[in-house]
Design goal:
- By secondary structure, the chain is α/β, with parallel strands linked by helices.
- It is built from 6 helices and 5 strands, in the order βαβββααβααα.
- Strands 4-3-2-1-5 form a 5-stranded mixed sheet, sandwiched between helices.
- It starts with a strand and ends with a helix.
């Protein structure tokens, strides 16, 4: 079970919260946080709670967002050279998804910064696809990761190494 902690803006577009505040899900990487970027077309920005890995997903149609998250997370994990066994296991656990309200203000703060940076990168190079933009954002140093691996791409690599061993 995948738990996505969505902002109020996103919940207004996708439907009501169905997950409790204490739900953690069954995915290896844990819960994800999400918000909407009001681009044309609209995009959902997801950030993993433990690694702060960003993923961008087309929002339309908003009613089917939860069923499309696994595909895009898989694509981004593949772009980061995650082991196929871990990707497959994560994808399997993401087939069922519940939305809930945000509970971690630190992750929400990082998500806001990623939204600003994504806007800057998107305006500078509108031809960059969402996966390329997510990979670029993942190299951004993040305050909550300073005492560990500094950026989401490095934190992901360390987390995947720990899972694999």
């Amino acid at each position: 079970m995948l738990i996505v902690r969505a902002t109020k803006k996103l919940l207004r577009l996708t439907g009501p919260s169905t997950a409790r505040d204490d739900d953690r899900g069954t995915t290896l990487l844990g819960p994800w946080y999400a918000t909407v970027l009001f681009w044309r077309p609209r995009v959902a920005l997801l950030v993993n709670e433990s690694t702060l890995l960003p993923v961008l997903v087309p929002l339309a149609p908003a009613s089917t967002l939860t069923s499309r998250i696994a595909e895009q997370v898989t694509t981004v994990l593949t772009a980061h050279h995650a082991p196929a066994a871990i990707i497959n296991q994560e994808r399997q656990h993401m087939q069922a998804c519940q939305l809930g309200a945000t509970t971690n203000r630190s992750v929400v703060g990082v998500m806001i910064e990623f939204a600003r940076l994504a806007e800057i990168h998107h305006n500078a190079d509108p031809s960059m696809d969402l996966t390329g933009l997510a990979v670029r954002l993942a190299t951004t140093p993040c305050g909550p990761l300073y005492d560990r691996n500094v950026s989401p791409d490095r934190e992901l690599a360390a987390t995947l190494h720990a899972i694999a061993t």
